[in-house]
Amino acid sequence: MAAPTTLIPAQAAARLDDHTVIDVRTPGEYASGHLPGAHNIPLGHLHTALPALKTAAARGTLLMVCASGNRSTTACTRLAAAGIPATTLTGGTTAWAGEGRPLRRSDNAGAVWPMERQVRLAAGSLVVLGLAAGTRWRPARWLSAAIGTGLVLSAATNTCGMAAALAELPHNRPRTTDLHATLQALQD
Question: Is the distance from CB of 16 to CB of 37 less than 8 angstroms?
Answer without folding.
Answer: yes
